[in-house]
Amino acid sequence: MKNVIENYCVMEVKGIAVKPIPKFVQEKFPEQYHAWLKRLPEESAKIMGNFISLSKWYSLKNALTIPTRLIGEMFYDDIEQGAFELGVYSSQLALKGIYKILVKVSSPSFIVSRASGLMESYYRPAIMSVTEKSDQHAVLTIIDFPEPDIAVDYRIYGWIKNTMESSNFNLPKVSIRKSMGKGDLVTEFFVTWVD
């Protein structure tokens, strides 16, 4: 019974969220890519150094948390900053072509709702909800995430921030009010804009 419970609690991340990680290092820090790979534990290095399927599910710890933390440590001397930059980069990759147009023409309400829905299609098990919403603000709250880490919180923060700034909103701002990775019960992203 213990193994069933342990396996159930292991979080996974979809390949579409993993694929930008080695690409980010190759593009931003090409001379240090191999050094980064060598510093990763064997399981993480195996994932980063091989073909990453967009639809496959990977261990959150090995495929995202550890590689992201190492990006922060090696290239930014700050895990939060490295994770944030990786989140921005991931959003930039996602917002190409039709998705960029969709973000430009969508309402703030639609984008905020979509962001919360994406969470569950990228991470499992995980739940993000819009817990507050008005004409000029929303609060996105991660309420279920069995393996919290600041690297994950700040990567999601960078992704949301860049997505909002790529939209047609007036003066969009995003901040983290609470972080499960820092010991809070939930992670909250506070999003504002001007109508």
Main features:
10 helices, globular, single chain, 195 residues, 55% helix, disordered N terminus, alpha+beta, four-stranded antiparallel β-sheet
Description:
Residues 1-7 have low confidence and may be disordered. The radius of gyration is 17 Å and the shape is globular. A hairpin with an 8-residue loop joins strand 6 (170-178) and strand 7 (187-194). The protein has 10 helices and 7 strands. It is of the alpha+beta class. It starts with a helix and ends with a strand. A 4-stranded antiparallel β-sheet has the order 4-5-7-6, with helices on one face. The protein has a 3-stranded antiparallel β-sheet with strand order 2-1-3. Helices cover 55% and strands 21% of the residues.
Determine the N-to-C terminus distance.
53 Å
Percent helix, as a range, is 55-70%
SSE succession: HEHHHHEHHHHEEEHEE
Q: Overall 3D geometry?
A: globular
Q: Please count the beta strands (DSSP E, at least 2 residues each).
A: 7
Rg estimate, integer Å: 17 Å
Strand content: 15-25%
Low-confidence stretches: 1-7
Average the pLDDT over all residues and give the rounded result: 91
Biggest sheet, strands in spatial order? 4-5-7-6
- Summarize the main sheet: 4 strands, antiparallel
The number of helical runs is 10
Structural class: alpha+beta
